[in-house]
Amino acid sequence: MPVNLSKQPPRRWAQTGPAAVAPQAGFFAVLLIVLGAWALSRATLPPDLVMPIVATLILAFAAVFGAIAWRHGAMDSGGVTFRDVAGALTLIGLCAAAAIEPDQMVRLVQSRHAD
């Protein structure tokens, strides 16, 4: 059995400070940003554009959190990690994208070609 002879605590005990709270705070911030973007786009844009914008925004944030998770490497598996947040945002973004009606996308593409 390996013995830790360094003065630093094991990695799982070291993740109790601000770095351990960062994934949860980031997830909450992303949800607030997406809610604000949804409300703003719903008030100012045509209804056919709202869900594609929201789904794209969520998936973009999922990619950002995926990059952060890749950069951070392994974290404490006992808490919420950046990988967990990236996965949750991916799932939410894909569900939002699945809620887009095919006819809605056809109308968007046709309106772009008519301009």
Query: Which consecutive residue ranges, at least 5 long each, have pLDDT under 50?
Result: none
Number of helices: 5
Mean pLDDT: 84
- Over all CA atoms, what is the radius of gyration? 20 Å
Q: What distance separates the N and C termini?
A: 70 Å
Major beta sheet summary:
none
User: Strand percentage, roughly?
Assistant: under 5%
Order of helices and strands: HHHHH
Oligomer state equals: single chain
Question: Structural class, judged by helices and strands?
Answer: mainly alpha
Shape: elongated
Q: Kindly state the percentage of residues in helix.
A: over 70%
- Care to count the β-strands? 0
Based on the model shown, name its key terms:
mainly alpha; 5 helices; single chain; about 75% helix; about 120 residues
Characterise this structure:
The chain is an all-alpha fold and 115 residues long. The protein is built from five helices and no strands. The longest helix is centred in the first third of the chain and has 27 residues, at 18-44. The termini are far apart.
